[in-house]
Structure to design on (348 residues):
């Protein structure tokens, strides 16, 4: 998240949340943090807010009534009267403790924070942050001892690595607020207690979401299904990855039929892609629209993971940016080795 220098961290409290199935306790703080040190306040603000992607939005959900989503309910109470902050933070800690029963869930510190003047969608808004730190790093502390120095090891939290986070902006309350989330641990489907069990959030079906998910679908299809079901080389996969990314970079709108015809092209591969899309949506319990505006922020994010590198043993890495027709793949019977032949006009 950018532009956070003027953000006001109004209140913060820390509770210790264990895993009840391992006999770990829930330890409740009696008071919020004092936060008299401006440097500590600034470091905490950076630790909490820097990792978030403010373009990727979620909202609280409930099967019957949004008011019955417990996290949503507690956050509403904080927004309506900040004197409720301590009480609602305790309720949040108790709820998380009750949801932390999976074997993979680690003990950690739960932070509940009230912010003001967070830049969001062109405005400065209030927000409630809910964060959990699970991973501890070991640090070396150098200190003076007599006429010399000594070194000691201490366990602590790396402020550049936020494990779990939820940032609730005071906007779109009737639709479950607008929420940003982070979950850098327990990414296995069976252990996503933070997103599914505790927060109960789902992505907003906006252009960012559709663009991000459609590109993720293409990447998975090309790297897995396309590679397994069709006799294609690694360079063919890279070529299709590049064509897919180029489509999103050069169009304002995505159209599924147009994409299938122009990029995937071969009817048999198109049929396989359509089946893969249906399974992709079913497994994730959401649908990608067949037509939507392409969001450039989502394209930029996905471009970082669309790898166009052809790795040959441990000797060569070839970056392929286009023109599959200028690459020839073959086999040398005399040496018993495979080869690639590259055609070009200039070298630099």
């Amino acid at each position: 998240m950018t532009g956070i220098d003027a953000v006001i961290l109004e209140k913060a409290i820390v509770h210790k949340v264990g895993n009840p199935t391992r006999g770990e306790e829930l330890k409740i703080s009696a008071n919020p943090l004092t936060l008299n040190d401006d440097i500590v306040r600034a470091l905490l603000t950076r630790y909490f807010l820097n990792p978030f992607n403010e373009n990727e939005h979620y909202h609280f959900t409930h099967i019957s009534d949004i008011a019955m989503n417990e996290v949503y309910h507690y956050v509403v109470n904080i927004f309506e009267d900040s004197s409720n902050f301590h009480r609602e933070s305790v309720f949040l800690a108790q709820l998380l403790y009750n949801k932390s029963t999976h074997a993979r869930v680690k003990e950690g510190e739960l932070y509940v924070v009230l912010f003001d003047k967070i830049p969001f969608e062109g405005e400065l808004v209030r927000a409630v942050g809910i964060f959990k730190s699970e991973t501890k790093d070991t640090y070396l502390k150098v200190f003076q001892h007599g006429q010399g120095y000594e070194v000691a090891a201490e366990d602590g939290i790396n402020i550049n690595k936020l494990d779990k986070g939820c940032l609730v902006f005071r906007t779109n309350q009737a639709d479950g607020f607008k929420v940003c989330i982070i979950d850098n641990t327990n990414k296995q489907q069976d252990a996503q207690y933070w997103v599914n069990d505790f927060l109960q959030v789902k992505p907003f079906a906006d252009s960012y979401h559709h663009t991000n998910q459609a590109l993720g679908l293409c990447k998975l299809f090309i790297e897995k299904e396309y590679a397994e079901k069709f006799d294609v080389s690694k360079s063919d996969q890279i070529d299709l990855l590049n064509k897919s990314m180029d489509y999103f970079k050069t169009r304002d709108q995505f159209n599924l039929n147009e994409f299938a015809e122009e990029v995937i092209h071969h009817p048999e591969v198109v049929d396989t892609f359509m089946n893969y899309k249906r399974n992709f949506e079913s497994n994730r319990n959401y649908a990608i629209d067949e037509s939507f505006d392409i969001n450039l922020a989502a394209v930029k994010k996905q471009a970082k993971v669309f790898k166009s590198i052809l790795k040959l043993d441990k000797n060569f890495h070839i970056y392929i940016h286009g023109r599959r027709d200028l690459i020839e793949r073959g086999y040398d019977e005399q040496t018993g080795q495979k080869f690639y032949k590259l055609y070009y006009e200039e070298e630099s």
In short: The chain has a mean pLDDT of 88.
